[in-house]
Amino acid sequence: QAQLVESGGGLVQAGDSLRLSCGAPGRTFSSDAMGWFRQAPGKERQFVAAIDASGNIRIYGDSVKGRFTIYRDNAKNMVYLQMNSLKPEDTAIYYCAADRILNRREYAYWGQGTQVTVSS
What we know:
single chain
């Protein structure tokens, strides 16, 4: 069973925006760092963004800096990824993750993913 559940993916055109959401119905992750990763067919899983438990620190992968924003609402036990100026190369399955420590590599808990497709 997935501990995290993503939603908000879809098919959009280049230049459009999407907001992905991640919730955790089974437990609270308010004391954990949260991250977003993505994976396209034939490519390695790529770090997208992460946020610490308090929401005070955000980190991003180089390919999305200036276009994507991660934020969280601990009262709702939710984390979000606002994606602007989308490009075809952003097409991937996007995964939400949680861990004790804010990082760019390893997370203990994962969702099943949501598909984002960007047409040119």
